[in-house]
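Batch manifest, entry 17 of 40.
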Amino acid sequence: MTDLHTPRAILAITIAAAVSCASFPLEAGTDEQFPSPVSGPGVEAIKKSQRKKIQRGWEEVIAGDLRAGRKRVARLGRLVPAQLLEYQIRLTEGGEDITDDLAAFCQEKPDYAAAWVTLSIAAERAGSELVALRAARRAGELWTASPWGDRAADLEQRWIRDRIEEAERLFGTGDLAAAMTELDAVRALDPQNREPILLTAKIALANDQIDRAVELLSELPDDPDARFLEGKIAESRQNWQSAMDSYSSLPEDYPERGSALQRAQIRWRLTLLPSHALQSMESDRITRGDLAVILVSIQPRLETLKGGPVPVMSDIVDYPGQREIITVVRLGIMNADRRGHLFYPDGEAALETIRGAIQRSRSLLGLPAPVWCEKSDVVGSACISMPSPTSGGSIVEAVLDVVSGAGS
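Output type: structure tokens
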């Protein structure tokens, strides 16, 4: 693998990535002033008088007197520090992109820190962020003192961390395209950074690009957050075994491991349920019998709890969900007409009945009460939405949420 910090690699990147637009002139007195060619590590050994002349020429350039600086450079011949000063004069004048020339110069003088700093500034001005960042990193390796030793960290803050933060904000507002623009820029600079990979995968999922998300997550083979997202993807595909495998591989102290694994295990168990239970869960408008079947099927511990005597209900004798109905009535989760010995299993379950049954069953299991959304069309992590009329799928989702704790 090529070392991206080597001068040769940076030169190759420069040739491939440098933009064609003209660079902008540096203004005297700005923070972007480049270092003196005779300062920092790696300066070629020259006579003291020559050193003073180059320093004086640099001071003239910084002060904005480019003509004086150029005259002084012309009298210094091919001294390496004088060559760098010439590049700095061209950079200050603007009007041309000197990134390639500077990269070649740095390749010839790989330990010349001031040259790497100047290359970084020139590349930034030309819009070549990748070259600018890598040149700054090389300069920082050579020259740890401020301000030039801090330049790479400053660029990383602006071009990586700040962009990730902005992408997260945009993702939160639903502006996925703008978030991706920020993340693409980050990944071009730091392709191994886990944060943009994870966020890009989440955006892919939001855009229903499942295969793309899986591809991205494969770049992070040992990352718990990536494994968690893979579990979510497996759930969306109803591949419960893969979901359980992903959640089981998470560290024991991973915050959502327990609830996610329990949810996947319950989903897996649902596939083993008898046909009448599956039919209840697939119903478009659930009946009272469907509600009883779903509650007990998802929360089988209810059948082990002590309750009242076994009720007699003549209208459930041949009903497929007879056992589940007896359980919910025996425990007081749902009511029956004890005088008429009827349950009315085929009657449509009212919203109030549904909410009350879920809440009472949860209480019997020692779980916190569910939090219901005030409006039926509101879905969020802090409450459970229950539409009316209610489908079997809605009941399943609601019970799974309260079982896993996601809605409490």
